[in-house]
Design brief:
single chain; about 150 residues; mainly alpha; 4 helices; extended
Length: about 150
């Protein structure tokens, strides 16, 4: 009876191996689910971008966008790019069991750039602008250093 419950001779090692396999399977299921959900999110975002662009272009004056409308379209466009980069990060993790730091930096740079592009500067303080510029510089330096450490041409 004790052996059936996993407390017998050598069960610690076999139990640990079995638990590790279960956790790996669980992790793969979660990652595949995340990929599926991210694919749906990117698809919906792309459709939303197309609908928004169409609606904005059909408003008078026909086929012209003002600054506010262009910023909205660019915001959606960059959101789709962020989604694609996140999808690539999750896919790479599934295949290689590691997160690519350069892709994480790239996603962060695109996300911060998106925020800067759609930002209403009237509501911003100088401290917030300095903080965002410092963040962009830090991310750019981090991206450069990671790429350099991995010997990838920039």
């Amino acid at each position: 009876m004790i052996h059936l419950l996993g407390a017998g001779c050598g069960s610690g090692i076999y139990g640990a191996i079995r638990m590790k396999k279960i956790l790996k399977i669980y992790e793969k299921v979660i990652i595949i689910t995340l990929i599926g959900l991210m694919m749906i999110a990117v698809l919906v975002s792309t459709v939303e971008l197309a609908v928004t662009l169409y609606n904005e272009l059909m408003k008078p004056p026909l086929l012209l966008l003002d600054i506010k409308e262009m910023l909205q379209v660019f915001g959606f466009f960059l959101m789709v790019l962020i989604g694609l980069e996140l999808l690539e990060t999750i896919r790479a993790y599934l295949e290689e069991n590691r997160v690519h730091a350069e892709v994480v930096f790239l996603v962060a740079l695109v996300a911060v750039s998106r925020k800067v592009i759609i930002l209403d500067y009237k509501d911003m303080t100088s401290g917030m602008l300095y903080g965002m510029s410092g963040l962009i510089i830090a991310l750019g330096i981090g991206y450069f250093l990671v790429r350099k450490a991995l010997n990838i041409k920039i």
